[in-house]
Every structure is written in C-alpha cells, then in structure tokens.
Amino acid sequence: MNSNKKVVPEAKAALDKFKMEVANEVGVNLKEGYNGDITAKQAGSIGGMMVNLMTPQQQWKFQRTNRNVNGHMMDINFTMVVGL
Known about the structure:
By secondary structure, the protein is of the alpha+beta class. It contains 2 helices and 2 strands, in the order ααββ. Helix 1 (12-26) crosses helix 2 (40-54).
C-alpha cells in the first residue's frame, strides 16, 4: 500500500511551481524532471525552505513564577512552530 498519495492531485502543478521558486530563491539550479545531479544538501535546503514557508508559526506568551524570589513574576516568550 502506497501512503504517499496526493490528497489533492490537482495541486501537483502548484507545488512544482512553488518548488522551482524556492529553488531559485535558495540558489539551486533546479530543472524540470529528474534532478539527480544536485546534492542532498541542496535538495534539503529546498525542502526545508518549502516547509518553513508552508508551516504557520504561532507565538505564545507564558508567565511563570521565579523560584528564587517569592511572588516575583517573569515574562517568558516562547515561539512554537505548529505543523502536521
């Protein structure tokens, strides 16, 4: 059983276009079709940038009590990337 099926097959063209734009942005010479001549590092930079651009980021703000001083509050900013 192949679990790598496209949920929306019509999106393939849009994803290919997006991949070409990202490759151009990160400076990788990507061509249509087979790209076996690029390095794993180059391929990873394309895929990594695609994930970063598609994944929404949320910033949550937490407040916690400082254990050293009773009753003292300290603001902590925590950025969490939410993805699938």
